[in-house]
Design goal:
Helices cover 95% and strands 0% of the residues. The protein has 2 helices and no strands. Helix 1 packs antiparallel against helix 2. The chain is rod-shaped.
Protein backbone atom coordinates (compact mmCIF):
# COMPACT_ATOMS: atom_id res chain seq x y z
CA UNK A 1 0.00 0.00 0.00
CA UNK A 2 2.85 2.34 0.84
CA UNK A 3 4.40 1.59 -2.52
CA UNK A 4 1.15 2.49 -4.27
CA UNK A 5 0.81 5.74 -2.30
CA UNK A 6 4.44 6.58 -3.01
CA UNK A 7 4.00 5.83 -6.68
CA UNK A 8 0.80 7.94 -6.77
CA UNK A 9 2.64 10.89 -5.22
CA UNK A 10 5.45 10.46 -7.72
CA UNK A 11 2.97 10.35 -10.61
CA UNK A 12 1.19 13.47 -9.29
CA UNK A 13 4.51 15.29 -9.07
CA UNK A 14 5.41 14.19 -12.59
CA UNK A 15 2.00 15.30 -13.86
CA UNK A 16 2.42 18.71 -12.22
CA UNK A 17 5.83 19.07 -13.83
CA UNK A 18 4.40 18.04 -17.20
CA UNK A 19 1.59 20.59 -16.76
CA UNK A 20 4.15 23.31 -16.00
CA UNK A 21 6.18 22.31 -19.05
CA UNK A 22 3.06 22.35 -21.24
CA UNK A 23 2.14 25.79 -19.92
CA UNK A 24 5.66 26.98 -20.65
CA UNK A 25 5.40 25.56 -24.18
CA UNK A 26 2.02 27.27 -24.71
CA UNK A 27 3.49 30.54 -23.46
CA UNK A 28 6.47 30.14 -25.80
CA UNK A 29 4.18 29.34 -28.73
CA UNK A 30 2.12 32.45 -27.96
CA UNK A 31 5.27 34.60 -27.94
CA UNK A 32 6.45 33.09 -31.23
CA UNK A 33 3.01 33.64 -32.78
CA UNK A 34 2.96 37.28 -31.63
CA UNK A 35 6.47 37.87 -32.98
CA UNK A 36 5.53 36.21 -36.27
CA UNK A 37 2.42 38.39 -36.58
CA UNK A 38 4.51 41.51 -35.86
CA UNK A 39 7.03 40.47 -38.53
CA UNK A 40 4.22 39.76 -41.00
CA UNK A 41 2.70 43.19 -40.33
CA UNK A 42 6.10 44.81 -40.82
CA UNK A 43 6.60 42.88 -44.09
CA UNK A 44 3.24 44.10 -45.38
CA UNK A 45 4.18 47.67 -44.51
CA UNK A 46 7.53 47.27 -46.25
CA UNK A 47 5.77 45.93 -49.35
CA UNK A 48 3.45 48.94 -49.38
CA UNK A 49 6.37 51.33 -48.86
CA UNK A 50 8.33 49.64 -51.65
CA UNK A 51 5.36 49.89 -53.99
CA UNK A 52 4.95 53.60 -53.19
CA UNK A 53 8.65 54.20 -53.79
CA UNK A 54 8.50 52.38 -57.12
CA UNK A 55 5.49 54.45 -58.19
CA UNK A 56 7.23 57.66 -57.14
CA UNK A 57 10.36 56.63 -59.01
CA UNK A 58 8.38 55.89 -62.17
CA UNK A 59 6.59 59.23 -61.87
CA UNK A 60 9.91 61.04 -61.40
CA UNK A 61 11.40 59.30 -64.44
CA UNK A 62 8.39 60.26 -66.55
CA UNK A 63 8.63 63.90 -65.45
CA UNK A 64 12.34 63.94 -66.30
CA UNK A 65 11.63 62.55 -69.75
CA UNK A 66 9.03 65.25 -70.33
CA UNK A 67 11.45 67.93 -69.07
CA UNK A 68 14.12 66.78 -71.51
CA UNK A 69 11.55 66.76 -74.31
CA UNK A 70 10.63 70.35 -73.40
CA UNK A 71 14.30 71.34 -73.56
CA UNK A 72 14.74 69.58 -76.89
CA UNK A 73 11.61 71.25 -78.31
CA UNK A 74 12.89 74.67 -77.20
CA UNK A 75 16.30 73.99 -78.73
CA UNK A 76 14.53 73.16 -82.00
CA UNK A 77 12.39 76.31 -81.70
CA UNK A 78 9.28 74.11 -81.53
CA UNK A 79 7.52 76.29 -78.98
CA UNK A 80 4.08 74.79 -79.59
CA UNK A 81 5.34 71.35 -78.57
CA UNK A 82 7.24 72.88 -75.64
CA UNK A 83 4.04 74.60 -74.50
CA UNK A 84 2.01 71.39 -74.77
CA UNK A 85 4.64 69.40 -72.88
CA UNK A 86 4.87 72.10 -70.20
CA UNK A 87 1.09 71.96 -69.74
CA UNK A 88 1.23 68.17 -69.47
CA UNK A 89 4.04 68.40 -66.93
CA UNK A 90 2.12 70.95 -64.84
CA UNK A 91 -0.97 68.72 -64.87
CA UNK A 92 1.12 65.73 -63.77
CA UNK A 93 2.68 67.71 -60.94
CA UNK A 94 -0.73 69.02 -59.85
CA UNK A 95 -2.17 65.48 -59.88
CA UNK A 96 0.75 64.13 -57.86
CA UNK A 97 0.51 66.91 -55.28
CA UNK A 98 -3.19 66.10 -54.71
CA UNK A 99 -2.47 62.47 -53.81
Amino acid sequence: MKQINGRMKQLKAEMEEISKEQESIRHGQKEVREKFEAIETECQQLRRDTQIMAQQSASTKLRLVIMFQILRARENNDFATATDLTRILREMIARNSQT
